[in-house]
Write a structure and sequence with these properties.
This protein is mainly alpha-helical. The chain is built from ten helices and two strands. 62% of the residues lie in helices and 5% in strands.
Length: 184
């Protein structure tokens, strides 16, 4: 039996639903059939994503699906919790699968080595996909501040346009560095 976050009150649960949909190639019938079967192993539905970490840590539940930051807090408190990253894997797998192989093939046909293709083609396309703020939110919830999420919150939550613009400008610096390294 395992604790699961309730989708009516938890972003973790919504993320879990979208992950299952992704695994089943967005076939809603198959995904929800799986979730219905999974319901038989749910011990309790918690109000927030991290609500089931302690029962897992003390052995009352065999496993759970949580944001990594919640599981790490429970682990650092001395509970026996093993961490894994299936949602991050699915996100990164999708990003890499979305890179057009023809772009890499063109670089190979021009005589580039594997290392150069990785450095000049694959890595920048991969890095550009990670620049969004959804990935940090999926992995760590809202308790792990990174520049994209902070810039977004400055503008939309605190109505601080100057602060949001400053953080956004700071995000441009690595982009310019990569651009210049590729050009020269």
């Amino acid at each position: 039996m395992q604790p699961f976050a309730d989708a009516r009150t938890s972003g973790t649960a919504v993320t879990r639903i979208f992950s299952v949909l992704h695994v089943y190639n967005r076939d809603e019938q198959k995904a929800f059939d799986y979730l219905k079967k999974l319901k038989n192993s749910v011990q309790v539905y918690t109000k927030h994503g991290g609500g089931g970490t302690v029962p897992v840590g003390i052995g009352q539940a065999g496993m759970g699906i949580f944001f990594i930051v919640d599981a790490m807090k429970t682990q650092q408190s001395g509970y026996d919790v093993v961490l894994s990253f299936p949602i991050a894997y699915l996100t990164l797998k999708g990003i890499l699968a979305g890179i057009d192989p023809n772009v890499e093939d063109m670089a190979f046909s021009l005589g580039s080595s594997r290392l150069r293709v990785f450095r000049i083609v694959t890595l920048p396309l991969f890095a550009a996909s990670l620049a969004d703020f959804a990935t940090p939110l999926i992995l760590a919830g809202n308790s792990f501040p990174v520049l994209p999420t902070e810039a977004f919150l400055q503008i939309t939550g605190l109505y601080d346009l100057k602060g949001g613009a400053t953080l956004s400008f700071v995000l441009l610096i690595p982009s310019f560095i990569i651009f210049f390294l590729q050009r020269f």
